[in-house]
Amino acid sequence: MRFRMHAFAPTMHVLDSIEALRAARRALVGTVAFVPTMGYLHEGHLSLMRAGLQRCDHLIVSIYVNPTQFGPNEDLSRYPRDPQGDRLRCEREGCALLFMPSNAEMYPTGHATHVSVSGLTEGLCATSRPGHFEGVATIVTKLFNIVQPDVALFGEKDYQQLAVIRRLVRDLDLTTEIVGCPIVREDDGLAMSSRNRFLQPEDRLPARSLHAALSLAADAWAGGERDAGQLVELARTHIERHDGARVDYIECVHPENLRAHERGRLIATDEGAIMALAVFVGSTRLIDNMRLDGPTHDRPADRAQP
Ligand code: PAF
After folding, report:
1. What is the arrangement of strands in the sheet containing 177-181, beginning at the earlier edge strand?
2. Mean pLDDT of 79-103
3. With 42 labelled, which of 52, 87, 89, 103 sits at a CA distance of 20 to 30 A?
4. Strand pairing category for 97-99 and 245-253
5. Is the pLDDT of residue 55 over 80?
6. Is the CB of 136 under 6 A from ligand 1?
7. Among all residues, which ones are annotated catalytic?
8. How sure is the predictor about 295, in pLDDT bands with cuts at 50, 70 and 90?
């Protein structure tokens, strides 16, 4: 009988300086997948890590709550954190290097350069979060320069963010391949997010109306509805039937350029359509999206409920 020797999982190194991360990254032989995060890791993040290790030899994860992507009235100070739990989660997933820099390391005094992607950063989340995508584009560019990944993975829940990152990689001639991964959902359809921990028990029904509303719009698309205005109103009506849900925006947009499909004009089937929305449930702002012309979506549990 032949035994297969299992190599011990290599120890994960936790690093907080750019210099140390660079040195450790240079010592890795083979390809590197990178998952940038703000921590408080959930199954969605873990799915990115697993997808990374399917593609590459090594995995690097960063945990950094980037202050420049939060507006003055946003939840930076109460953003959830669990550094010890996150370390264990990364280690269990086979992460080689975990980068956890401080603000002083990432934005030393005098830091004055920002990366701005125009066009894609107008509308959708940018309307109520001015400056957010500049903060994201800046930190992601810095992290890519530090980590030098072959592949970087991002969740499709942050659809606009993914589009912005794809564009900046293209425009700045970066060599990292960007991989978008499907939204991971709770059993009731709620998209996984670190912010879900702020939801109170009474928020659950309004929170799950987001996915239900998107599914209604996708059903309507499948049934032949092509007017963006009708599709948006269908979703809005469903969400607004739930006490505690306040719509920030609902838009039906082109999947690549994110331009809103004009209401009252029929969308050509080959144009493609994605419905994206942001909804306040209590004080928590949730986002979600669904490709209307994509593969059959899963059916949420609360479709029949008000
Ligand atoms: O999606 C996130 O968690 C953040 O926006 C990112 C990409 C890690 C940049 O801070």
Report:
1. 13-15, 97-99, 58-63, 32-37, 151-155, 177-181
2. 98
3. 103
4. unpaired
5. yes
6. yes
7. 45
8. low
Q: Any idea which of 3-12, 206-215, 219-228 has the lowest mean pLDDT?
A: 3-12
Instruction: Give the chain's domains with CATH numbers.
Output: 13-181 (3.40.50.620), 194-291 (3.30.1300.10)
178 lines ligand 1 (CB under 6 A): no
Residue 177 has pLDDT above 50, yes or no: yes
DSSP reduced 3-state for 245:
strand
Task: Report how far residue 10's alpha carbon sits from residue 62's, in angstroms, rounded to the nearest whole number.
Answer: 18
Distances (CA, A) of 277 to 56, 63, 109, 188, 189: 33, 26, 37, 18, 15
What is the overall mean pLDDT for the chain? 93
Label residue 96 by pLDDT band (50, 70, 90).
very high
Q: Is residue 137 a contact partner of residue 168, using CB atoms and an 8 Å limit?
A: yes
Tokens of 203: 């928020």
> Closest ligand 1 atom, CA of 37?
8
